[in-house]
Amino acid sequence: MGAVTEARFFAASSSRDAAVPAAWAGPETMSRDALAALQLERLRATLANAWANVPWQRARMEAAGLHPSSLRSIDDLRRLPFMVKDDLRANYPFGLFARPLPELARVHASSGTTGKPTVVGYTHGDLERWAELMARSMAGAGVRAGDLVHNAYGYGLFTGGLGAHGGAERLGCPVVPISGGGTERQVALIMDFGPRVLCATPSYALAIAEVAEQQGVDLKKSHLAVGMFGAEPWSAAMRSEIEQRIGLAAYDVYGLSEIMGPGVACECECRDGLHGWEDHFLFELVDPETGAPVPAGAAGEMVITTLTKEALPMLRYRTRDITRFTTEPCACGRTHLRILRVAGRNDDMLIIRGVNVYPSQIEAVLVGRPGLAPHYQFVVEREGVLDRLRIEVEALPGWPAERYAEAAGDVRHHVKSMIGVSADVSVLAPGTVPRSQGKAVRVRDLRPKER
Ligand code: DLL
User: Fold this and answer.
1) What are the pLDDT digits (tens) for 84-108?
2) Can you spell out the DSSP letters for 262-318?
3) Are residues 318 and 404 both part of a single domain?
């Protein structure tokens, strides 16, 4: 399906309402039983693809006694061990691909902070399905055919830029492919071109808002109405901050390159969790320590199996992302499970004197506090055998320097009482914390490396 007109596209009317677009009402509102049957059928095909075309996957299936034709139920998949990021690195660059290179349409990669990048591949069909899922995500967030999309996700090996681009085009939206950086120009083009939709990481959206304010430009007077923000954890407090400063409704979009890219899950207009597209992915939630499924409603690590990927079938991939699921019906009518805001990655979790804490939890305490700007970093240091946390947060421009100590005391108190962690707090002058153009660096880990 190419670009579509509003009249044809929406079941209810051409108005901007929250109805599930007619084009996707089938897959998005099917009964959970029908969804489970579709998942089983697609899982069999995925296992058959992996068995036939990826020797590494076949060896794992043989070891687990799981032949594609022996799969009776989705639960049988649990016989297979998890996949982790290092499996991609160990098979660098193309060892887990189920198609020879000439049959691929594109390759992406994520740099990672250590070791080799993880490389992912797509057939033409994979790119089509990705565009479709990203289009569904955008439509769910209220983006409509014809809306101009300002896409400030980075273009290149990162999946954000091209992923959002493909989805917007698929939905019938013209795209401004500006990528990240050149923030003053971003502000000028937002005002001149009048996009209705902004795609960016939440931290970069905030950097754009800040530069606009410094230039005396009021983004609330622009045509921006919808923000598609993701690629990093962000708190509800950060959502309100961005909404107030830019004047739009901010939606959370989730994804990861190993599984596809942006558009694995996205909030609908109810903004009560991100619908994970279960017709293309199988979601599990496990205890990060034991690997056992967590009880319904409990937090755990998200594990994802792809159901329609041709070039790179991923079976039980551990995302490291910690979240909770609900399958309660959503007011929008979509039946797909909802992922409740991703708190952070297991790797980013800090253990400060025995308390587990995610950077986004501290962000929720900092953002909006009197005198403070939403720009911060956490420094983790070693003191004897214990880890010590220092919060560096900027003061608002114009906030008097003689009141920095008071603001620091306020943060220290609230972090202790709301999260239970003792932290040192430094309030810094405006402009001191580095600004992001993509994923923000929130933690500076100064602990000795051998850990
Ligand atoms: O970040 C894909 C993406 C691009 C998603 C644009 C959304 C928008 P990676 O670079 O492979 O892919 O990083 C994936 O980023 O495992 C999460 O830890 C984190 N992440 C992505 N979206 C969210 C989100 C892209 N909405 C990793 N909330 C994932 C929290 C997120 N964390």
Assistant:
1) 999 999 999 999 999 999 999 999 9
2) EEEEEE-TT-SSEEE-TTTEEEEEE-TTT-PBPPTT--EEEEEEESS-SS----SEE
3) no
